[in-house]
Design a protein that fits this description.
The chain has 13 helices and nine strands. The radius of gyration is 19 Å and the shape is globular.
């Protein structure tokens, strides 16, 4: 197969089927699907039986939950394809996504990773907006300033690049995608398809990893140690990376209406970064989160 699509899943068979079907409906068909259940789950096993006659779908499970990083790495190791794409079990794709990403990689041997735009949906708020790629080429330094590439579900990468950089860091409780992109951007150019080809459904659940400010802080501590030599040589990169982490924590607190954390990290943020950007950012925290989303909708 040309492409392996790696889908980690954890006890969500009701959304997993939609993710699988969005792959099966792709205009590009030279793929296999590697689904890894992160810990045994009877309902997922039962649901997967409906796909057992499709020889392009490979389903793996193991007894104990070990985290999404482990599940993705497990799937990568099972792949023998030239390219690997990732899809979280609660996301799904436009049916042209694989075709357009394969075309970029086939036509540009210097590009090792290609990402797409995405559509973000908040069902409970009836809000959606689009984020489109803004940076391509050499992102070896820029990636420390912002995660231009985004999450795993909009990425396709050459297998040989992962062999060179290593896989997802299983120690990280969060930001595992961005940390891998830090490594990838040091060894290859980045390409993009400027269309919203994957749909991210934000379930507004406070137990989502993306909503856990503690996991963001813990992940930063691990990354800070891991890249200590780089950050000593280039302290501006550490400052840029840390400021984005703190901004993310503040947004999580704003969204979940955690006033204590919002106050604590707003104070930390202002004490570290007294400039126009930080002033405007903190002003925006006074606006209810749903209204910020509506402003993004208008901008989109």
């Amino acid at each position: 197969m040309k492409v392996s699509v790696v889908i980690p899943t954890y006890r969500r068979p009701e959304v997993l089927a939609k993710a699988i079907d969005s792959v099966l409906e792709q205009t590009f068909q030279a793929f296999d699907i590697i689904i890894v259940s992160d810990g045994y789950h009877e309902e997922t096993d039962i649901m997967m039986k409906s796909y057992r006659d499709n020889d392009r779908i490979h389903y793996y499970t193991y007894e104990t939950n070990k985290g999404a990083n482990h599940a993705r790495n497990y799937g990568i190791k099972k792949s023998t394809s030239e390219y690997i794409a990732f899809l979280d079990d609660d996301d799904f794709w436009d049916n042209t996504k694989l075709e357009k990403q394969v075309n970029v990689l086939d036509e540009n041997p210097n590009i090792g990773l290609v990402y797409t735009g995405k559509k973000i949906v908040y069902p409970s708020l009836d809000i959606s907006y689009e984020n489109l790629p803004s940076e391509v080429g050499d992102l070896s330094e820029k990636i420390f300033y912002s995660n231009y590439i985004g999450s795993t579900s909009n990425v396709m990468i050459r297998s040989r690049i992962l062999e060179e950089t290593g896989l997802f860091d299983e120690r990280l409780p969060s930001m595992q995608d961005r940390e891998l992109w830090l490594r990838v951007c040091q060894v290859t150019e980045i390409g993009a398809v400027s269309e919203p080809l994957f749909i991210y459904v934000n379930q507004d659940s406070n137990d989502q990893i993306s909503n856990s400010w503690e996991k963001k802080i813990k992940a930063f501590e691990i990354i800070d140690e891991k890249y200590a030599n780089t950050f000593v040589k280039f302290p501006e990169l550490r400052e840029a990376f840390e400021s984005k982490v703190i901004e993310t924590v503040i947004r999580i607190a704003q969204r979940t209406e955690d006033k204590e954390i919002l106050k604590r990290y707003s104070k930390i943020y202002w004490n570290k970064y007294k400039n126009l950007h930080s002033f405007l950012f903190l002003c925006s925290t006074k606006v209810p989160f749903r209204y910020l989303l509506k402003l993004r909708t208008l901008k989109s």
